[in-house]
Amino acid sequence: MKHPQITIAELIFVVLVAAVGLAAIRSGSAAWAGAMLSITFFAMICSLLGIAMGRGRRRVYWSGFAFLGWSYLFLMYVPWLHGNIGRFLLAPNLFAHLEEVLHSDPQAGSGLKSLPLGILGATATGGGFGGNAGVGGVEDFSDFVRIGMAMEALLWAFLGGWAACYFASGRDQASTPQVAPPAGRPEAGGQTRGDATMPGGGDPSA
């Protein structure tokens, strides 16, 4: 198996998800949050079909896609995993802060007007990058944070598929035996194995 390369179909998928994600970030509404989660779960379920029905590189890719994608969803939506690991990941904290920066009230005197001030304010109020985001359960997240969680899940899944193909290509190369040259292959000087022909086509008995 050759080293993995990003195909045109994968690039189209990434661009499409990025476009939908940017539109969802700009809106931050419940409808866009639902759309992003629907796309995420649709891709995760399709990955199971890819494992069951795929062959070769496609099956390897979907295996990595499903492994990391579903792992992220478990970390975020299983209560015990979310409380101990999931709430410390990137999306619950970063997008909670971005929501304050992008959707803050411009007339509020203490509103976040710049990224450095927002970081300092979040650190002062919550002891972390995202403030108090993620302290409760996953049901306490806003629609904006749910959009970020869906985007991060797809990012994990895409990187998982690429990493699976990369590791599989290295394993196949290591297990491929070295093929010996044919016994009758001509050697330097015009001689062949098992043949007494002299260089230049002369007769050795002459």
The major pleated sheet works out as:
none
Number of helices: 7
- Please state the CA-atom Rg, rounded to the nearest Å: 28 Å
Structural class determined from secondary elements: mainly alpha
The helix content, as a percent range, equals: 55-70%
Number of strands: 0
Return the average pLDDT rounded to an integer: 75
| Unreliable residue stretches | 108-135
Distance between the termini: 53 Å
Looking at the chains present, what oligomeric state does this protein adopt? single chain
Beta-strand percent range = under 5%
Structural domains: how many: 1
Outline: elongated
Order of helices and strands: HHHHHHH
What features would you describe in this structure?
With 206 residues, the chain is mainly α. The protein has one domain. It contains 7 helices and no strands. Helix 1 (8-27) runs antiparallel to helix 7 (143-175), helix 2 crosses helix 3 and helix 2 packs parallel to helix 7. It is elongated, with a radius of gyration of 28 Å.
Could you provide a short overview of the structure?
With 206 residues, the protein is mainly alpha-helical. The protein has helices spanning 8-27, 30-53, 57-77, 79-84, 90-102, 115-126, 143-175.
